[in-house]
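so my prof wants the structure for this chain in the C-alpha cells format not the other one, which i didnt know existed until like an hour ago. anyway here's the sequence
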Amino acid sequence: MSVKRPRVGRRLAERAARKLVQDREKLAVLSPGGVRERPIEVVSSAVIEVRVEGMPCAQCGGQYRVREHEAPAPGLRKLDVICRQCSAPRLLWFRIVPDDPN
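here's what i got, hopefully its the right format
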C-alpha cells in the first residue's frame, strides 16, 4: 500500500493548477481579440471599453480594468487590461467596422 505524504499531494495540486492556467492562456490567445490577426469587431470606439468591462477574465472570471487604450493603426485598437480580481494582464484587440446601411 502506498501512502502519499501531504507535501506530495500539494505539489501535484499546484502542478495541476499551473497546467490549468497555461491551458486557459492558450485558449484566450486563440479566442477573438486575443491576437492582432483576429480582433473583435465593433461598430464604434465608444463601445470598446464598455464591452471590455463586461468580458470575464480568462483565468478567474473576474472583471477587467483598462490600463491603456491605443490606436496602432486606423480602425484598429489595442487595449492593455488587467483583471481586478487576480491581476492577470491581457492584451485585447478590436477592429472598428462601421455599420453603414447598404
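also thought this was worth mentioning. The mean pLDDT is 89.
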